[in-house]
Amino acid sequence: MEQRQMKYQLLIIGVVIGVVYGLIARFDFGERMTLPSITFFFCVPAVLGIIPLLFADNDKLKSYTYIIFIPWLTLIVFFWTLYSTKYEGLLCLLIMAAPYIAIATIAAFIYRVVRINRQKKNGKLLTLVLIPFLLGPIEEYIERPSATYTVRSEVIISATPETIWSNIVEVSTIRDNEYNAGVLNELGIPRPIGATVDKMAVGGQRIGRFEGGLRFVETITRYEPNSFISFDITVDPNTVRPIVFDQHVLNGNYFSFVDASYELVPVNNGQVRLILSSKYQLTSTINYYGKIWGDIILEDFQDRLLDVIAKRCEAK
Hints:
It is a single chain. This protein is of the alpha+beta class. The chain folds into two domains: 2-140, no CATH class; 146-315, Alpha-D-Glucose-1,6-Bisphosphate, Chain A, domain 4. 49% of the residues lie in helices and 21% in strands. The chain is built from ten helices and seven strands. The chain has a seven-stranded antiparallel sheet with strand order 1-7-6-5-4-3-2, covered by helices on one side. Strand 6 (255-266) and strand 7 (272-283) form a beta hairpin. Helix 1 runs antiparallel to helix 2 (38-50), helix 2 packs antiparallel against helix 6 (131-140) and helix 7 (161-168) crosses helix 10.
């Protein structure tokens, strides 16, 4: 009985130490603004998957259920702690979840094989916890590549080009019952509210307004009435919301909007294909992973905005 109780105590100790380690890593990488890095997204979860297993005996390690459940339990408590203390939002945790779960699980199985084959704990394995803190500063000196990506959405609208044009250059206030909010909006992505333009020509300034007071300052770079409009995009830093996602992404140094454009292409039967394209730039050592979420978020946003525009134009 006492031996079983001791094993459970060691299990709890292992999970707690794993969570504390994760929090220290999160704060350290957050202070250095290196959250979007190979070290934080791959090395840290590997260590998190191993730490609680350092307190398990070989009998426990032979259990596949234990090998999977314990690292996952550590991650769940770690994520819950970040969310409850408001250091991360739900969307940020969702983005972290896939690599953290996958890498922690793989690392746990590798550690299992090593430990069982050695038949005893090896103090050298404890040095694993230092790897992220050694690699992190080194990664900071590696030049972070920049890459620009384009997200394209389109919709077929049964309306004249003139009608569509009047609904995209300036956008009157979008009411709640017009916008079909989705899961990403619930997780923190702001929905569009409207847009105004001070001059209908190249050089004119278009102000895009979003939920929570966020504003995009957009300078028109190409203006062809009833056919094509494009604009550069900058985020008004004074309007960035205090929520975690906005602070990490819009105030970070690894994501930025580049430009956007609307193109109207006439098709058969008096219909028009409206194409919305947006470009964004990523600057990090994990651009390949950031692109996945950048495309998902922007495509979702664009599809929902085009749906509003289509309904307005066809209603007229």
